Amino acid sequence: QLPTGLYKKVLVILHDSILPYMNEPTLMIDFLTVAYDVGGAISLLALNGLFILIHQHNLEYPDFYKKLYSLLDPSIYHVKYRARFFHLVDLFLSSSHLPAYLVAAFIKRLSRLALTAPPEALLMVIPFICNLFRRHPACRVLVHRPSGPEDMSEDPYIMAEEEPSESRALQSSLWEIQALQNHYHPEVAKAAAVLNQSLSEMEDDISGLLELSAYELFDREVKKKAADVPLEFEQIRGLFGKKNDIFAEHFSLD
Q1: Are 72 and 86 in contact (CB under 8 A)?
Q2: Distance CA 199, CA 12 (A)
Q3: What does the pLDDT look like over 155-166, one tens digit per residue?
Q4: What is the C-alpha to C-alpha distance for residues 170 and 103, in angstroms, rounded to an integer?
Q5: DSSP per residue, 124-166
Q6: pLDDT on residue 151
Q7: Dist CA 141 CA 51 (whole Å)
Q8: C-beta neighbour count of 196 within 10 angstroms
């Protein structure tokens, strides 16, 4: 058992400062799998080391995606390790051989959690979801369902279900993204409206959005130059401002 602070410090540097210099990196399997089960930020940080063991050392982790799915909670849009987490989730969901129900469950859960996310996180996760649709066309039924969300009496998706295959995500629709099209931040509303059109084949580059902060977003808005809006002004005549009615003939505002 390690103190939480030490646990985090070790996991932050494990993937690039420890594993590459070990003769047998597989010795860290137990340590990383236990860390992955702790929950919270420690589980997020354990993903880096696990990715190396899975990708380079043929580690087979049963129920890996189920555990990854369970890590999706409201805090993922607020933790300081958000960029690292979404970078790895993007890698884990990059394979085109993943079943549609699994990817749909991730899309639906990310969309539901997005309803309470800050704007800087939304500007990252909406292109992230669009990329998942590009990789997995079978999931586009969530957007292009013949009977849209207005025809559903209730959302069949089960948010509390821990097993992605039982969440019924493929039977649902992305009404959450439709709701974000009315977001108070114009950039978020514009990003969400992309799903109303057919997506391009090329994926969006989200690397520059992973570490977008609220300060950067505010600074970008402040530095925007207001465009000159041409106005046509016409002097009001008469009581009701119309030119040729009877009130204009007999009443004046002067």
Answers
A1: no
A2: 36
A3: 899 998 989 989
A4: 9
A5: HHHHHHHHHHHH-GGGGGGTS-SS-GGG-SS----TT-SSGGG
A6: 57
A7: 30
A8: 10
Q: What type of residue is 166?
A: E
If you write DSSP's letter for every residue of 68-122 in order, what string do you get? Answer: HHHT-SGGGGTSTTHHHHHHHHHHHT--TTS-HHHHHHHHHHHHHHHTTS-HHHH
Contact (CB, 8 A) for 94 and 156: no
Token pair listed for 196? 């109303």
Question: 35, 46 in Cβ contact below 8 A?
Answer: yes
Identify the CA nearest to 50 among candidates 21, 29, 20.
29
Residue written as token pair 């999931």: 139
Cα–Cα distance, 6 to 37 (Å, whole number): 17
Whole-model pTM: value is: 0.76
Dist CA 17 CA 21 (whole Å): 7
